[in-house]
Fold each of these.
Amino acid sequence: MLRQWTIIAVAMFGLLPPVLAGPPYVSDDPEPTDYQHFEIYTFNNGTATRDDIGGETGIDFNYGAAPDLQLTATLPAGFDRSVAAGTSFGLSNIELAAKYRFLHQDSFGLDVSVFPRVFLPSPSNTIGSSQASVLLPIWVQKDWNGGWSVFGGGGCVIAGRSSQSFCLAGGVVTYQLLPKLQIGGELYHQTADGAGTPATSSVGVGVRYDINETIHLLGYLRRGLQNVATTDQYSWYASVLFTF
């Protein structure tokens, strides 16, 4: 399901500080965490459909293990409230990932990274997926003077059961409205899988506010455009990001 896979760039311009991207959007970016630095997100996200509302709360750890290499571990606890089955809580799918940037804007004109991500089987019988899967995406980004940035890309989730595999793609435009305030918009699409989940397309808006160099607030709202009642009547993401 979209919420279960609901899966970070630095743009510098003028005298403004670096601006991180990726979260709060579904689409990611190619910029890894700075070498020997941390980015830690405490987050809550979810999606509502006609018959169900569910999501996750957790911690997303990111570490710059080497120049151009980011290591990621996401530890989520999930919830689900359906009309048919009531409310469930439990641990969801732990995620392990590594982002490697192999092309740079200063030499190639674009930042380009691969960011493979492994989803471990959920230990819960009612939350998350009992099957292991892997997301194999590629992400690109272009920055301009004046505060504008575009990033996005896509890939496919390959599940333990081929019927649960699907592909996704998305793109984000962000603008640094104020030195501490960034806004953005996203278009996202996910294909249908063989297990009965239909394709979905959506549009979302995001915001990031930098309290200081260490603490940052992120928020995001999304609305489905395709198969809305069964895939995405509305979705949200909120987090506090710590960088150091």
Amino acid sequence: MNAATPPERRSVGVIGLGRMGLPIAQNLLERGFAVIGYRRSGSPELKSAGGVVAGSPAEVAAGSEVLISILPDIAAVEQVVTGLDGILSALRPGTVHLEMSTVDAGRKRLLRDAVRKHGGDLLDAPISGSPGMVRPRRTTVFASGEEASIEQIRDVLDAVAGSWVNTGEFGNGATMKYISGMLMASHTVAAAEAMVTARRAGLDLELVQRTLDNSIAGSALLAQRGPVMRERSWVPAPGPVETLHAILEQAEKYVGALGLVAPVFAASKEVFDNAVADGWSELDIACVHDQIAGRQALDGTGGVA
């Protein structure tokens, strides 16, 4: 008697194999999915991990049951979906595209409509967390869109990068990411103010950290970034300023469109604006400590002062 043929592995395409996309692909491979990926500059890392490297988004779409993309801006997402050799030219009917980039939901909705006309669906699902949090699955995905499509790829969402939440109608994922970014900026600046105050007062900063971590005043940002602020060690950057700042720029426009005055967010964003203006984009977000302290986070060679 012939042995039973093992079930074929479900295929997932990942487009955008950068600091977030590559560990997402690695997590999928680890959970038993077949992964085919694309990056304009190639990805020997994916190949060495057991994945297949494609030559175009269209090739990824042709070989995938589920698509994931995580890209730097809306222009890149539009090019991947509708451009030459884009996914629409080879989309399988019934494919669900998990679009994880933090970009304008209105323009992403137009891409969803185009995907639907080709027999698939596209979900808005930004990811909250830094690149270093993806591989150990400590991020959160804010999925939004058609309920049936979310359920169709539940196993993929479970494998991607950590917890995930169905936030409801399309675009709610982007809104949740903006709210998350607003809180992250505000909490980081508040933690920086606290640590600068403690430093100026001559307190033992390790004692301050332990005391606050075990009090009602503690926060996840203080717990994670307080020690970094204490040491003033901004590189390597698990969460660079430029990544959060891009989200804050979008959040500012979104809040403005709502007609909302958000003074705490506005003040926090100004601190990050100044960090970018001072050339600190590649440093960890904890470097805003030095914005508050009036210190220079970089020396003349680009190292830590």
Amino acid sequence: METGRPYSRLLLRLERLNALSADDRQRIADLPFKLVNYPAGRDVVSHGYSPSQCTLVLDGFLCGHKPASGSRRQITSFFVAGDIADLATLHLPAVDYSITTVGPAVVAFVPHAALKEAANGSTALAQAFWRETLMQAAISQEWIVNLGRRDAFARIAHIVCELTVRLQASGLARDLSFAMPWTQMDVADACGISNVHANRVIQDLRHLGLVDWDSRRLKIRDWNSLTRLGDFNDDYLHYRSNTNRISSLASQNVVDADPIRTTPSTPVRGVTGAAKTDG
């Protein structure tokens, strides 16, 4: 099967635990993908929308979010290349969150009918889609712990570690470095803190020598210390094949940092889009 096709990242994702047969791989290759390029900050799916298609991320980042405290939002998930951001809509009548681009992104829309036909024709594919839904639920559970029981430093460190592992599972972030178009507001909305607090934590992570982080790119300089700070264990992601590769990279790139201060300098404090755009 060729690389660089719309279905390539989806196949890589579905086969991360169990290989698919040649027939099942062909079923995925034959899906009718509709590619759409989106600019930064564009709503792809709106809360309450009843879609007839699923959204596969091909490049860039999407985020799922809900309104909170009037004008503020809570980011509830990030989606990376290979993720189907709204897979549950195969069996649910409407989306209960909005999905928005974080930086420019490329997505592929796949009709529900085509996905259901592929799943109905293959037990292995049906199980693979079901497994994807369960894994997204596991990530959501970890985010609840992150917001409820970790301080601001650990919250941000944990999300960075999680995204690194997830990107490596899609063949990205091979050198613990990746494009990161987040704004400070995105970080704050994902971690339930203020923009000012998010800025202070990011500055401290840089000062500690754990990351190089600018407006376009993030590079992890000390993976082991960052995972300790973020209380990060990737068991919930089920990416066993990735862990050894990241550990190997980290062992070659460890920076001797000072003991990590995990207490934030300030206490932690704790819009939805228009209709779905079909391009």
